[in-house]
Amino acid sequence: MSKSESLYNILSSKYEIPIGKGSVWKYPWLEVDRLLISEEYIKYLLNDDQVDMSIIRVFAITLNWYDELLLLRLTGSEENFTKSNYFGLLMSNGRLFRLDNSSAGVINMYNKECKVKICAFNVIDYLKFFCFFLDGPGKEWAFLESKEDAEILNLHFGLIDTNIVGGTARPAFLENNYDQIKFECSAITYFNYTIYICNFEVNKDGSITILGNEAIAFIKQKSNVPNELFTSITESCELSSANGSLFNYEWSPIESSLFSHLFNNTIDGTLRLNYKSTEISAISLPWCSGLILLQVFDESWSSGNYRVYYILDMNGSMYRLTGEVQFLSMDWLHVIDEINVLDYLRFFTFFNRRDHIPFYLIESIDDPNIVGEVNTGLMKHISMTSISQVTNNGDYLCKATALYIGNLYTVYFSVSPYGKVKYISDEIIQENSGIKLNAPIV
Question: Measured between alpha carbons, how far is 402 from 433 in angstroms, rounded to an integer?
């Protein structure tokens, strides 16, 4: 700890220092005259006695949950300040506390001494401030509220897809306010290549507890150059996007010259592949960046409607879809919006099968995957899948007509912006409807 009785008063009287709101890296920092800051101060904040003072720049900001306090930032870089920065809390009595990425204890101590003022109007800004110094963006913790945040993360964590990561962003928000004594907040956070929904409890005294967190995506680092196989397919085919039900997909056939790069002579040793008769086609998935869905079919297979499906990613890795797609929500980052949410739900329910039986979303009596006769009374209950509501936290509540083990239901789902699908409830339309699904995947 270092001391200067007059620096706070000098800076406060000389400058109209703005208030810090939002994320620390977005504060409207005001640059102040470096010559007003003693070398002792600078060396203390940099934790370095060998400092070239000529390159040091000093910035200041006020924080509206503290009275008579300045947050100082020192940097020697002209670039984005998150690369090389040093912080300190300057009190009106001249005391200075250095802040780094393990300063939660320092902040809690200061809160007790100076009576932090947390309320519904500043709790989110305080939470961002606290978490920044708990483990800031120079390490592996950050709030993800905008595409700009994703671009800043990209500076530190490598080749992530900022368009996709930024698509998950949402502002942190206050969920519950318990008589201005404690506040429950929710935020999207980034830690160690994982994106979470985090729920926090912020108490009036400034202490913070993590109530829980839920991983919504693991981010695979992207290679600078996509795998040759991925590139060959995307360059040789004009891939359409997956829209509507699978039977409506506009599949693009893959050239037979690529067969040997994708498969051996058989699948599972029983389904024989022949470049003259086997059809391999592809389509892109608009809710996942850098993924292709492959469909394999051959009329010579014992069941004429057998299909085999794979996911191919940019790294050339292939993943067989055998009836469980929960892993997709974790292995690749989904970005679900109002445009693609229904297509994603159709895809998810088709491939996510319990005991190989899906909740198949039926939207037309002309669906070629349905066998049996639909009676006239049931026709009026078959409707297009639709969005019934978008919740405050961005989840989509959807309504669909579903076929499950021959029974017809009206089913309600919620779909998060990150690809997590939850079954909510169902209403039986008809038991033993007389129709069934004929769309096996192997």
Answer: 12
